[in-house]
């Protein structure tokens, strides 16, 4: 999943994103820290989140945290002990994959991305 994120044009912010892939109400598990900004900035930042093959279909909790003038650490998911930032949770829907079937004829197979 590709995304873009921005704090605004006045106050430089760094971002970090976690997704609770196993729905255990914790962002501390390996692989749940899914993206971190490279800098604290007012510019639009872009990234990609790769859904692990082990993620079961369904709704997962995604946490996005920003901190003023710094990049959040991997253990900042509780959002305590610092000033000037924001933390928001979102629903992240993991959709089951559709298995391939049949055998394509050489030179005729095509693919296109779809958004359900």
What can you see in these coordinates?
By secondary structure, this protein is mainly β. The protein has one domain. The chain is globular and about 60 Å long. The model has no long low-confidence stretch (mean pLDDT 90).
Helices and strands, with pairings:
Blueprint: E1 2-5, E2 13-19, E3 33-36, E4 45-48, E5 58-68, E6 85-94
Antiparallel strand pairs: 1-4, 2-3, 2-5, 5-6
Which percent band covers the strand fraction? 25-35%
Poorly predicted runs: none
**Helical stretch tally:** 0
**What is the H/E order?**
EEEEEE
Principal-axis shape: globular
Give the strand order, joined by hyphens, for the main sheet: 3-2-5-6
Average pLDDT figure = 90
The total beta strand count reads 6
Computed CA radius of gyration, to the nearest angstrom:
18 Å
First-to-last CA distance: 13 Å
Helix/strand/pairing category: mainly beta
| Largest β-sheet summary | 4 strands, antiparallel
The portion of residues assigned to helices is under 10%
Number of domains: 1
């Amino acid at each position: 999943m590709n995304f873009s994120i921005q704090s605004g044009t006045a106050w430089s912010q760094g971002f970090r994103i976690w997704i609770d892939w196993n729905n255990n109400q914790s962002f501390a598990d390996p692989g749940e820290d899914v993206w971190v900004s490279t800098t604290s900035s007012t510019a639009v930042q872009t990234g990609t989140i790769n859904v692990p093959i082990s993620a079961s279909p369904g709704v997962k909790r995604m946490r996005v945290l920003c901190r003023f003038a710094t990049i959040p650490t991997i253990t900042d998911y509780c959002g305590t002990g610092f000033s000037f930032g924001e933390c928001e949770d979102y629903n992240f829907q993991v959709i089951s994959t559709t298995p391939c079937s049949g055998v394509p004829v050489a030179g005729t197979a095509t693919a296109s991305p779809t958004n359900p």
